[in-house]
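In response to the reviewer comment on reproducibility (Comment 2.3), we provide here a single inverse folding case reported in full, input and output, so that an independent group could reproduce the run without further information from us. The structure tokens appear first.
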């Protein structure tokens, strides 16, 4: 439960104007796409950083990638 709250805390710390205009990424992204990328980043930050070996890190990254493709594409 703590990890999920850390993901949402990271997402909610981003200013709304950053999401709406995507001003800091230097491109013209849709806000929805920016939020999915932000969600992926926060999941990687929270979960992957806890892993100690490369195999576990790659397993978590693959889960995040599969889930985001399945549910957000």
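Designed residues, in position order:
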């Amino acid at each position: 439960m703590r990890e999920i709250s850390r993901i949402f805390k990271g997402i909610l710390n981003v200013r709304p104007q950053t999401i709406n205009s995507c001003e800091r990424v230097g491109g013209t992204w849709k806000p929805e796409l920016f939020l999915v990328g932000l969600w992926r980043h926060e999941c990687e930050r929270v979960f992957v950083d806890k892993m100690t070996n490369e195999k576990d890190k790659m397993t978590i990254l693959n889960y995040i990638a599969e889930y985001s493709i399945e549910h957000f594409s």
